[in-house]
């Protein structure tokens, strides 16, 4: 017994050590970017910045917040994240709930068709032709409609709905509830954990959308934040208005600080959402991933 206890403590020690190193490997690069965003450009170029700002300055954030093109991209990203997530959850629930009920006769065929999309995905060129034919290119709908339902999230939500007792649904029908009233008053309130979990997945996917925007959108006015960020990172220099006195120090300096500030602004909002949904997220993953 003592030997088993000692082995267990040894395992816990090395497991904690491994997870700590893994967490540091993920957090330290972010801390470095954060430090650079508050540092002078000369300090960044000379390699003096590690995990603490050198020659602390807010000029990088002042420039980013004064650039209307970045604000426009930020608005586009927030819009497709909020609207896209609502569309995703509505579409996924609308498909997952009927096929989770045994009285729906064609449910196996629908599940099989969704499963096929997980194995075989449409190539890029047919997708682009479809988007162009539907006149969705250069619109935000090209970032919202194609991925309205994720096959993986569909199966998670379907598994969750299948665990809701049939007696609860039958009692609602006996009390005279229509299907829509029953879904709204009974099913959805019970589905907060899985909705929060899948909502995070969908929201992060929309917030980080890049490839679809690159394929389907050519107008800078409709670029989301990630595409705008790519443009800033790849640019050799960033245009500074010579008449803007507050940015005169940036005219002949490297724009690395501006790039890092933009990265932080693009990262922080979606990170701040998780703590508010953590309880539902953990519960949703534990329940929605178990099939009865």
From TrEMBL:
Limits of the ABC transmembrane type-1 domain: 74-277
Localization annotation: Cell membrane
Keyword Transmembrane helix: yes
UniProt keyword terms in alphabetical order: Cell membrane, Membrane, Transmembrane, Transmembrane helix, Transport
InterPro entries cross-referenced by the UniProt entry: MetI-like (IPR000515), MetI-like_sf (IPR035906)
Principal location class: membrane
Membrane topology term: Multi-pass membrane protein
One GO-annotated biological process of the protein: transmembrane transport
Gene3D superfamilies: MetI-like
TM segment ranges: 74-97, 109-129, 141-161, 182-204, 257-277
Family, similarity comment: Belongs to the binding-protein-dependent transport system permease family.
Name this polypeptide is given: Carbohydrate ABC transporter permease
Organism: Paenibacillus cremeus
Lineage: Bacteria, Bacillati, Bacillota, Bacilli, Bacillales
């Amino acid at each position: 017994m003592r030997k088993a206890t000692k082995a267990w403590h040894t395992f816990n020690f090395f497991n904690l050590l491994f997870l700590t190193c893994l967490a540091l490997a993920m957090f330290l690069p972010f801390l470095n970017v954060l430090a650079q965003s508050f540092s002078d450009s000369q300090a960044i170029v000379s390699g003096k910045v590690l995990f603490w700002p050198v020659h602390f300055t807010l000029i990088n954030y002042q420039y980013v917040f004064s650039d209307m093109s970045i604000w426009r991209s930020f608005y586009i990203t927030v819009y497709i994240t909020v609207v896209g997530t609502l569309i995703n959850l509505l579409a996924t629930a609308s498909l997952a709930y009927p096929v989770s009920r045994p009285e729906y006769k064609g449910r196996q065929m629908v599940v099989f068709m969704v499963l096929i999309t997980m194995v075989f995905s449409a190539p890029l060129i047919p997708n682009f032709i479809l988007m162009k034919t539907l006149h969705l290119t250069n619109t935000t709908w090209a970032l919202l409609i194609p991925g309205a339902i994720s096959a993986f999230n569909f199966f998670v939500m379907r598994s969750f709905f299948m665990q809701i007792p049939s007696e609860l649904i039958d009692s609602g029908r006996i009390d005279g509830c229509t299907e829509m009233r029953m879904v709204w008053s009974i099913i959805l309130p019970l589905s907060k954990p899985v909705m929060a979990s899948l909502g995070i997945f969908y929201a992060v996917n929309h917030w980080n959308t890049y490839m679809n925007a690159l394929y389907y959108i050519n107008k800078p006015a409709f670029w989301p934040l990630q595409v705008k960020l790519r443009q800033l990172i790849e640019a050799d220099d960033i245009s500074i208005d010579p008449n803007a006195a507050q940015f005169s120090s940036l005219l002949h300096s490297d724009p690395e600080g501006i790039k890092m500030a933009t990265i932080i602004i693009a990262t922080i909002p979606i990170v701040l959402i998780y703590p508010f949904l953590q309880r539902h997220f953990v519960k949703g993953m534990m329940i929605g991933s178990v099939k009865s």
